[in-house]
Write a structure and sequence with these properties.
Layout (H helix, E strand, L loop, with lengths): L14 E8 L2 H11 L9 H6 L9 H16 L4 E7 L10 E11 L4 E9 L5 E10 L4 H4 L1
Antiparallel strand pairs: 1-3, 2-5, 3-4, 4-5
Length: 144
């Protein structure tokens, strides 16, 4: 049972469990193929280096998916992301580790929970602050 499956246990300010995800070259290169994002910085290390990056880096959809994972790992498989706002401040490179942290910002009577999610690399550099709103299933009666 996830914390989010019990409406009464959700408290504003509560910390979400940290999610850690090692990113290897294969995953960085496979994601553009899966999402049809063929920008060379996502699969061509020489192109990335010529443009000031140490190597290839994950695309925006990869980071957005990771943000959603941090939220839904906490909330459970039936939670639905209804809003996501992200800002890209830094890149996650092949060989890096994505570290996701979050906390509950608000709890609404219409079964919505607002979360703040932050994505760091293994060096502790903030790469992506985000806000996510989740709709939790079956909470209407508990919310009243």
């Amino acid at each position: 049972m996830t914390v989010a499956s019990d409406w009464s246990r959700i408290t504003v300010g509560a910390e979400l469990p940290e999610v850690v995800d090692p990113i290897d070259y294969q995953r960085v290169a496979m994601n553009p193929g899966a999402t049809w994002d063929y920008f060379p910085g996502h699969y061509d290390p020489e192109y990335a280096r010529r443009h000031g990056h140490p190597t290839i880096f994950v695309n925006t959809m990869h980071i957005a998916g990771f943000v959603d994972r941090v939220a839904t790992d906490w909330a459970g498989p039936c939670a639905r992301v209804v809003r996501r706002r992200i800002s890209l401040l830094g890149s996650i490179y092949a060989g890096d580790t994505m570290v996701g942290r979050g906390r509950v910002l608000g709890k609404r009577s219409d079964c919505l929970v607002d979360l703040e999610i932050t994505v760091f690399n293994q060096r502790g550099e903030l790469c992506c602050p985000a806000e996510v709103t989740l709709q939790l299933p079956g909470q209407a009666a508990a919310a009243r």
